[in-house]
Structures are given as structure tokens and as C-alpha cells.
Amino acid sequence: MRTALEPKITSPLLLRQRIPKNCSAVNKSSVSIFFIPSAHWLLLRVMDAEAVLQDEDMEGSWSLLSWMASCLMVFGGALPYVPQYQEIQRSNNSDGFSTRVCLVLLIANILRIFFWIGKQFELTLLLQSVVMILTMFAMLHLCCGVQYANRVSTKQHRLTDWDVRYFWQWSAFEDYLLFCFGFTVLCAVITLLLLDSVVFVETLGSLAVMFEAMLGLPQLLQNFQNQSTKGMSVKMVLLWTAGDVFKTTYFVMNDSPSQFWVCGSVQILIDVAILLQVLFYSQDTRTKLG
Asked: I need a labelling partner for 87 at 20 to 30 A (CA). Which of 3, 81, 153, 197 fits?
């Protein structure tokens, strides 16, 4: 509330209206002192407008950066498989790439989708799972086509053979689709029955990130078995590492469930181990990088 001694701030237009037209020059000059509060009022309005514009600019810049980070999270996970896809197409050989990487990622992202249903976190991570599932199907489709073209024996291994020795080494791409469909239906039924259980939902999230943390492990084991990294794209592993560092930072900054940043940390360690294999098994690392 304004005190009795506080000057009343008003606009210049109102002051001009209050000055009589027949006022002398001396009186007019004395009235001019009342324009000082008016000038102060205008200055405050200008400063407030500038502050609002600065806040809007900062909010707009932050929103743009947040949107770009979200897009990178959604599509960034699929980028490492572009050079591997091109390498398989170029060499017409998929022996250097472990298709069990696709198995791990498919299970992890299907579980993550059901984890999202039970505990709705960032929509960005849900979209990332959908993109990763489509990417893994594209990799499997390519590998099946290359293996079919290079196959010497006419004997095929199918899912319906129920032969555990050839699990995830089937000849037809349709078998991989059928397995994922069956696994999805099983997860859907169990989730529907136990959705109200907090323990089940948290366990589902832990399983999802545990599988995702093991992403590079099949490739690590295959390189060790072959005693070589031939056929594996080093660019893919480098992009794995960069992506895992980025998304782990993203998880920490966005207060995502703790399972996610633990998963990212384990993935970084496995990525580093695969890069050490490249240095150990390759005589000319620069050739691999090229």
C-alpha cells in the first residue's frame, strides 16, 4: 500500500491533461518536475520488457536444445548399425557380426516397453525402444539374406525344429519375427496379470536394463572365439561408446530410473573392452578405422 509521502507515479499523458492551457512559462517549468516520476515509470516498463524478452529467449534456446537431445536419444541408438549394415552389404558376409546382439536388444527393448506401461517415464525412451526394435529387424533381415545367398548346404534350421543347438541361428527371417511375437504376447499376459505389483514392475525394468547392459557381450565373445575382429565395424563400436556416454549422461541429468544409468555404465565398460580387442587382434588399427 502506498504511503502518504510516496509520490504517485502516473503517465505523462495524464499530467499534460492536468496543466491549464493559460499557465505561465514559470508555472509550466515548475510543473515539469512532475515528469520525473513519469520518466522513471517508463524506464521500469522498458526494463521489464527487456527482462521478459531475455527470459523468453533463454526458454526458447533451452527448449530447442532439449528437443535436439530427445531426437538424438530416439534415433542415436540406431546410428551405430549403419556402418555395420554397410560393411555386411559390401563384403556380402555377416560372420563378423554377432546376430545375438540383435537378440539382446530385442528382448531388452520389448521389456522396456512393458516397463513403460507399468511406470511411465520419458516418452523419448519409449520411442527409442520402438526405433531400436525396427533397426534390429532390419539387421536380421540383411543377415538372413546374406547367409541364404552364401549357404552351401540345402539343410535349413527352423524355429519349429525345436533344436536348441541352433537357437537364434535360423535360416528364415520369419522365424525371428515369430519368436519375438511369441515373447511379446507372453510378456503382455504376465504384465496384465501383475501390473498392480510394484515389485514386478521394478523387476521388469531391472531385467530390461540388464539385458541392454549386455548388448556388446555377444560381440565381445564372438571376437574372442574368432580371435579376430574381421567383419566387425569398428565405427559401430566407436558409435556405441559415444552413444552410451551420451545416454548415461542424459539419464543422470533427467533423473531417469537408476536402472538406466547403471545399464549405461556397464555398456561403456564392455565397449572399451571391445575396442581393446581391436587393438589386440589387429596389426594395423588405422586400416580398421578407415
From this structure: 153
